[in-house]
Amino acid sequence: MSPALRVTRAGGALRVGGPPPHPEQAALVEARGALLAWDVLAAEEAGLPVAEIHDPHAAADWLWEIYGPGGADAILGAGEGTSRVTAEGPAPAESGVLDAARRLGHLSWAAAWWPASAVAGVPALAPALLAAEQALAATAVEHLLDAPGALGPPLARRREPQDAAGLRDPGAPGAAGDPGGNEPPDGAAGDPLALGLSDAAAEDPVARLLRRAAPAAGVLAALAGDPELGAAARETAERLAAAAESWGVDWPEPGRPAPAAPRQAPAAPRLALAAGGPAGRHVFPGASGALGPPDSSGTPGLPGLAGLSGSVPVDWALVPPGAVDAAAGAAWSVTRRAGALLVTVTVPRAPRSPLDPREPHPPRLAARFGPVEFPLAPAPRRPGEFTGEAELPGAAVLLLPPARRALTVWAPGFAAPGRPGGPGEEATARRAALLRHAGHRLTAPGATLAERAAYHAGFTGGEPR
């Protein structure tokens, strides 16, 4: 039975279906004249996408390949207001474009939102393999891609938390895969061509992805002899070399080092879908700390040297992808030292893929506790953590309502800190679902090579286990 789709026409724009409720769930592809979206947590994830069609004339050239000829005609012919149309999708023999677009959307979601976590047992994906698979998926849908901003993880991650009304202009991609350096280049805010892209790369998203995927040549060569992944790695390498030749992109020969991929600044937040998001399961101790009895100085909450302590989840939207452990909380404690009250914050870093040969630059993070803001940096003796410390203005801070002394962690230049504290209970439950989804993807029949390689490589060592 063909699905019935809700189509809303307002002026010259059309909306097909309802957008995923939260950006963390959105697998996006920006096509000519439209934005396509799949909800990675929806039961019908493998079905037809929802769409925001801002240029029906441009979308008419390819819409039939996604919704079928009859469905495309019904969507484009919908009258003003809301109506129901039937879309059967493309015939099985003609579903290649839909399948490739869905795969491309999933890969872009993974590059933007993959919840790598040592705490939850979700290994990191190799950015080079993700870019390689994105490039190959893009070759199958090149004719429907919107040149300046069709691809790239930041498409799904750029957002304005205060704006929560469905699909919006997602802008053009800025970067992902390297969370270092939060600031976009000078003049890049709102300018798709200024975000580390050449004009030629912006005009051809496939060529841009192929250039970014060049480091995958070495990763694929290392995987070529693996008994489980070798065949897929060799096939991927051959297809990439052929695609690079077709698009006129220099591709490293086997055994030769790959050219450095273009470094792009993480995108400043800008809404692509609705606000909100999900995270860990039972791993957060909570956002409150208990005041102890008065110590010898009569200061509540400071028994001896110990004071308040607690943990809050980190809002994924406030930090670049791959910056912090997706399921670990930001821990804080207040202690007294040499007569001063000090707050210390620690945040576990996200695990790295052992298949990624590049050493990423650590992102610039900051913490806010009550009225105090201070930087977080990699801990000298604990490289797997970010940490920072600041002096509190007085013991009165500890008597503030919990909401006013809640901890917030963010990346300056990437996002504004917003309201105090981490995401609420509802958001935490949604993020737990995304962690489960990522864990399932590692061994799912349709897992990508990047997901399969992450499962076999795990968290340590440079070779698949």
Descriptive notes:
With 465 residues, the chain is an alpha+beta fold. The chain is 26% helix and 18% strand. It is built from 11 helices and 13 strands. The protein is globular. The relative contact order is 0.14.
What would a concise description of this structure say?
By secondary structure, this protein is α+β, with helices and mostly antiparallel strands.
Q: Give the integer mean of the pLDDT values.
A: 77
Q: Note the total helix count.
A: 11
Categorize the overall geometry. Answer: globular
Cα(first) to Cα(last) distance is: 45 Å
Q: Fraction of residues in helices?
A: 25-40%
Structural class: alpha+beta
**How many β-strand runs?**
13
Strand order of the largest sheet: 7-8-9-12-11-10-13
Order of helices and strands: EEEEEHHEHHHHHHHEEEEEEEHH
Question: Spans of 5+ residues with little confidence (pLDDT < 50)?
Answer: 148-180, 183-202, 257-305, 460-465
- Major sheet description: 7 strands, antiparallel
How large, in whole angstroms, is the Cα Rg? 23 Å
Classify the beta-strand content into a percent band: 15-25%
What's the helix and strand layout?
Layout: E1 4-10, E2 13-16, E3 26-31, E4 34-39, E5 50-53, H1 56-59, H2 63-76, E6 81-86, H3 96-113, H4 127-140, H5 154-157, H6 199-203, H7 205-212, H8 216-223, H9 230-247, E7 306-313, E8 329-337, E9 340-348, E10 365-369, E11 372-378, E12 385-391, E13 407-410, H10 425-441, H11 449-457
Helix pairs in contact: 3-4, 4-7, 4-9, 7-9, 8-9
